[in-house]
Amino acid sequence: MTSRDQGFNAATLPAAGPRPTGSGNAVAPRNTPLVPSRTAARKPVPAAPAALVAGPAARAASTAGAGTKDVDPAAEEAYWREQFRLEPYFVPDSDYADYGPAYLTGYLAHGLLAGSRYEDIEGDLERDYSANRGGSRLTWVQAKAATRAAWDRVDRV
Predict the structure, then answer these.
(1) pLDDT digits (tens, 9 = 90+) for 9-59
(2) Cα–Cα 20 to 30 A to 42, which of 130, 142, 146, 149?
(3) DSSP the chain
């Protein structure tokens, strides 16, 4: 009878420990569940650094030594939560969850790319918006004006 015929047998497994170099995989120690139980306490996920949230343009700026400008994300979010319905690009039946990612993209990117022209990095901002979009129903074409408004506000403040 072959091992295949015998079915699973824990005694035939190799000893716990890393696999040979080059495999890229590791073996979990015996008696360790591979999938955590659903009842196990979950650790909170730490907040991502602004450069990661803002996406490719912001990450490039953070590594390229581009200028920065202090931006208070909490203040910007509070402002835009009150203001977004009054903006000329506002689409009826939309809510802040639709516009928030566009504002986030604009003010975080400006904070990290101070001194850049919006027009020069608009393509990067589109990619950043896609990364930040989450559940927003707005396409980039619809969100672009909100991203620009947030960028311009940081420029003025």
Answers:
(1) 334 334 444 434 444 444 444 443 333 333 334 333 333 344 435 454 544
(2) 130
(3) --HHHH---GGGSPPSSBPPTTS--BPPPTT--SS--TTSPPPPPPPPPHHHHH-HHHHHHHHHT-B-----HHHHHHHHHHHGGGSTTPPTT--HHHHHHHHHHHHHHHHHSBTS-HHHHHHHHHHHHHHH-TT----HHHHHHHHHHHHHHHHH-
- Answer yes or no: is 49 within a domain: no
How many distinct structural domains can be found in the chain? 1
- Looking at the whole model, is its pTM more than 0.85? no
Give the domain range for residue 115. 70-156
In a domain, 47, yes or no: no
